[in-house]
Amino acid sequence: MVRTFARAAGIIYLLVGILGFIPAFLSPPNGPDLAVDAFHGRLLGLFPVNLMHNLVHIAIGLWGLSAARTLGASVGFARGLAILYAVLAVMGLIPGLKTMFGLAPLHGNDVWLHAGTALVAAYFGWGANRNTGVTRT
């Protein structure tokens, strides 16, 4: 189950990262200015992204796909993703940090998306049943 989560999250984040580089999927940005303004916009009209944000999504996607190969790596991915995205959600609420010092937008709809991702990843990282079919006596 956690391996399926890692694979699905990997595919989703890889696709989202790629979509962020296609201008047809970006609306004009709203919110604070960024030092890195390449590909700055709102993905699907909802989520603020830019070049750095897209690269991070691609890296997370590749991490998830790689982690999906083993149970242990999948658990590590889910736990790491939960912690990372919880931190990003909190940063998105703090005025001085919501642009990661001008590098990437973390505000607006990204806050609830990051928080939701953190909760789902935490479930798979710490709470999901990891029955591997091995019976212990």
TrEMBL record:
Q: Which Pfam families match?
A: DUF4383
Keywords attached to this Swiss-Prot or TrEMBL record, sorted alphabetically, are: Membrane, Transmembrane, Transmembrane helix
The transmembrane residues are: 7-26, 46-65, 77-96, 111-128
What top-level branch of life does the organism fall under?
Answer: Bacteria
The answer to keyword Transmembrane helix applying to this record is yes
Protein name stated in the entry: Membrane protein
What organism does the UniProt record list as the source?
A: Deinococcus malanensis
Upper lineage: Bacteria, Thermotogati, Deinococcota, Deinococci, Deinococcales
